[in-house]
Amino acid sequence: MQTLGLRSLAAVLICLALAAAAALPALAEGTRIVRDETGREVVIPAKPQRIVALTPWVVEMLVMLGKPPVGRPSSADWPAEALKIPEHGLAYRLNYERIAALKPDLLIGNKDLHAPYLGNLQQVGAPVLLYMIDSYKDVSEKFKILGDLVGESEKAAKLAGEIERRVEATRKKVPATGHPRVLIMVGSAEAWSAAKPTSYLGDMVKLLGGVNIAETGPEHRPGYTKLSMERVVEANPDVLILVKPVRDASDKSKALPGFAKDPMWNTLKAVKNGRVVELDPFYFTSPGPRYADALEQVAAVLYPEVFRGDR
Fold first, then answer.
1. pLDDT grade for 278, boundaries at 50, 70 and 90
2. Residue 268 pLDDT > 60, yes or no?
3. What is the pTM of this model?
4. Which of the 8 DSSP states describes residue 117?
5. Are 311 and 189 in contact (CB under 8 A)?
6. Based on the domain organization, do 147 and 237 belong to the same domain?
7. Shared domain check, 82 and 184
8. How many whole angstroms separate alpha carbon 307 and alpha carbon 304?
9. Please, which pLDDT band fits residue 252 given cuts at 50, 70 and 90?
């Protein structure tokens, strides 16, 4: 009786599994299912041929993988080959008609930036994948994800491995003690935000052992908080890192002179000790394959006595 019961149970389970499988829609030939970082399972072409990138890091990685997209946001201007790719508008202000005109078979964008517009993107008629990229781990991981999507897994692993090698070589040189207290200011004297450890640049400082004085505080946008100059004076960081929020090759102006007009600015320890550095937004406003280059620059700012000869 016991044996018969087990057999009956097994038969029931098999029938349920077959029924569940039959209830699922058949996957069309030449397609596959991918889960993106919104948690959605998306049916995409097994070998996408007309990817439209909605954000610069996707352009950069696909170009380096030898599989450039058929469309890019206007801010994606690296590597040089990217400039040959048709523009579809701004990453933060999507032009759906121009995107649709490129006849994409897959759209890839940034989760934080594009998830609110997912409904509009889906109306373009192509599947949409959205991913996050705010850290060293993300850069390596997304290289491998895109490599898998376009059939260049081996090349992606090699490119990610080179970034990982350079990052670890930099980290090994970081002193065991004497880690500076740091404030990262993104913007201008008129309007700036403090980058938290969860931001792209904040992740680099954390990876290098720096103490971010903006670690706490409410986020007014992902990875960033607001600090008053009074709070900055109170915290009195050892190092100040400034970055303009948008890279514009035609704009040669600097953010630093605007801050220097504030009397409180000149009371800061970092200012008095000459530990204020304005970094080129070329490396810091677009997370992606330039991570190792950017990290080496930050390391030279935090530990000049160790990394001065490397630059």
1. very high
2. yes
3. 0.85
4. G
5. no
6. no
7. no
8. 5
9. low
CATH number at residue 66: 3.40.50.1980
CA 6 to each of CA 14, 19, 115: distance values in angstroms, whole numbers, following the listed order: 12, 20, 48
Q: What is the pLDDT of residues 6-16, one digit of tens each?
A: 555 555 555 55
Tokens of 162: 């080179």
What backbone torsions phi and psi does residue 197 show, to the nearest 5 degrees? -60, -20
CA distance 88 to 178: 47
Residues 202, 293, single domain; the answer is yes
* The one-letter amino acid at 161: G
Report the distance separating Cα 256 and Cα 269, nearest Å.
16
Distances (CA, A) of 257 to 11, 64, 125, 237, 265: 77, 37, 48, 19, 11
**Cis preceding-peptide flag for 79 (omega within 30 of 0):** yes
User: 24: which residues sit within 8 A by CB, 6+ positions away?
Assistant: none
Cβ neighbours around 154 below 10 Å, total: 9
Q: Which residue has the tokens 């008629």?
A: 125
Provide the 10 A C-beta neighbour count for residue 114.
22
